[in-house]
Amino acid sequence: MTTFLGMPATAPRGVGHLRGDQPFPRAAHDALDNSQLRRNLRHATTTIRGKSGRVIAELPDWQRLRDAGSAIKADVMSRLPSLLVELESRVIEAGGVVHWAADANEANEIVTGLVRRTGSERVIKVKSMATQEIGLNEALEDAGITPVETDLAELIVQLGDDKPSHILVPAIHRNRSEIREIFLRAMPGVDPALTDDPPVLAAAARRYLRETFLSTSVAVSGANFAIAETGTLGVVESEGNGRMCLTLPDTLITVMGIEKVLPTWRDLEVFLQLLPRASTGERMNPYTTMWTGVTPGDGPQNFHLVLLDNGRSAVLADTVGRQALHCIRCSACLNVCPVYERTGGHAYGSVYPGPIGAVLSPQLTGIEDNASLPYASSLCGACFDACPVKIDIPSMLVHLRNKAPHSPAERAAMAAAAYTMSRPRLYASAQRAAKMARIVGRRGRGLPPPLSGWTAGRDLPEFPEQTFRDWWARR
Amino acid sequence: MRIAFFATCLADTLFPEAAKATVRLLERLGHEVVFPFEQTCCGQMHINTGYQKEALPLVKRYAQTFDPYEVIVVPSGSCAGSIRHQHAMVASSYGDAGLAARSASVAARTYELSELLIDVLKVEDVGAYYPHRVTYHPTCHSLRMIRVGDKPLRLLRQVRGLDLVELPAAEQCCGFGGTFALKNAETSTAMLADKMTNIVSTGADVCTAGDTSCLMHIGGGLSRLRTGVRTVHLAEILASTESS
């Protein structure tokens, strides 16, 4: 008898955006060379960090809220299947249709089929990480359907034929003069006299988006939360574009990762406090839109919920790794990460960049396909302290490194070092041998890889005359 | 008090002055220091690079070597962090419940230097004299893994002759991260460059920290750039007196 239920272990290759073209160190090389990108990133992350820190400091119970968020998420993961079944029943009772997508290919087929049946050749989209993860825009375009991103930053990325580089601020790597050029080149009907003044740029986007909202009958959204007890979906956002997408069209299709479900409305209270303060540094996000099925004569008359697995069941099966599913996509970990600040989001090769991406992406794809990501961290721990749901990212990185494939050379070196270090006499003679090698050699410059990485920017310390243990033995 | 000393492989091999200073300091304060010769390395590099199985004998060695002692000191927040947060985890994930319990027990008796001084020995003024302009880098693992807080600063503030200057963006990582400095050398170097800029901006002639590993990284960079700023372990400052 088998217990295999037909779920794919990992997200499929060849579709979606979870895998980069090159390993992290090589991809980081390009970003490190781009001084404009680094300036943009530093400015943006420093600003958000400061703002977020100030509004978090206003709450006397922030640490208890984090504990509550963490506990609710742990509870959700421990009974995810039954919560999803409950959610499904409530959505159907409220007049919605529920679809289960095992992976990116199935989800794209479901959504594309649903849009085709409406006859619409265009959909408006409110920012959704899940649809980026599965490459829905590409799938829609292949089917002759035009997806229009309505979040301003997403729109900039889409018009620039670019990729998002931040969970919350997808165009964080662009400055305003770059944005002006993108609008002039790619925005339909844009005023050629456009300046790079932010209000002018925002007005141009507003005009274009208003026209699109009022003339498009199908919307695709993500979901920040789903409430199992009532079948209610929720999106939080800052610009109002989401409210437009969620209320104006006839048909609304929501694509949601299965980990987003919460048991009850009371649980939502915790997350509506945690998310805006940790992410945008706001006390409350400007727009919170909640909807339950369909209401005749009010809002979308057809509602479809696509529940996406795409590797999540495999993540859930790892009792250490499953914490990555607690993530509420606030991006606080990105904004405090010294590695992200210098390399940017594209270096991570996935729609999920930064520290959370370094633990989530390799689990969704299987560690072999993203083996360099768990190493894209100095384990400084700033992400753990910043996370509003207390995901222990450093420990997860260490856990994933232990599962990552290692090169035979590195494995041999590590095994030899462990062998030596677990034998005190051998260790003491190795200390002396290392010293001799250095004296005979060239004082540590021009060492072979991987040690050359060290000597490229730093001197090696000189070997002392005497090790501590020799000193101790002779005192 | 009788205190067992875990020197760490890095201090033992490359920075014996930091280890010697720890001994001198504790003896000056009237304590007996014991150095068990069977000690080697805490295994942090192996654990953090993804070689937990290889680290298991090192975890076992640490527990066996230090189990007989009531109080153990280690002049490294990073090694203390590994011992406290990783040793029992490695032991239990390789099915050795007995070792996991022993590791947890030894870890609870293992203190980083500033913790030992302030929490156990209840001393803030260690009678040191160090006439230099000094800036303090908190080191990530001291700060976030074992939460030493301002203990090192409290100790430094009592040192006579010492001019303590605040390091801008002190809590940002220097970019060392063990094998991170090798596997992601360019990113590590970019992080180090910012750390060095901040250190030089203070006008300090000495940068101190509670970890020889971060100091090796920062010191290697400062030396390459000929900045003239030296890196000195916290223990060496605290061990200094007017006569030394």
UniProtKB/TrEMBL annotation, chain A:
The keyword Manganese does not apply. SUPFAM superfamilies: 4Fe-4S ferredoxins (SSF54862), NagB/RpiA/CoA transferase-like (SSF100950). Residues 89-294 form the LUD domain. One of its GO terms (molecular function) is 4 iron, 4 sulfur cluster binding. Pfam families: Fer4_8 (PF13183), LUD_dom (PF02589), LutB_C (PF11870). Residues 402-475 form the Lactate utilization protein B C-terminal domain. PANTHER family: LACTATE UTILIZATION PROTEIN B (PTHR47153). This is Iron-sulfur cluster-binding protein. The lineage of its organism: Bacteria, Bacillati, Actinomycetota, Actinomycetes, Micromonosporales.
From TrEMBL, chain B:
It comes from the Bacteria. Residues 3-83, 134-218 form the Cysteine-rich domain. GO terms for cellular component: cytosol. One of its GO terms (molecular function) is oxidoreductase activity. Pfam families: CCG. InterPro entries: Cys_rich_dom. This is Glycolate oxidase.
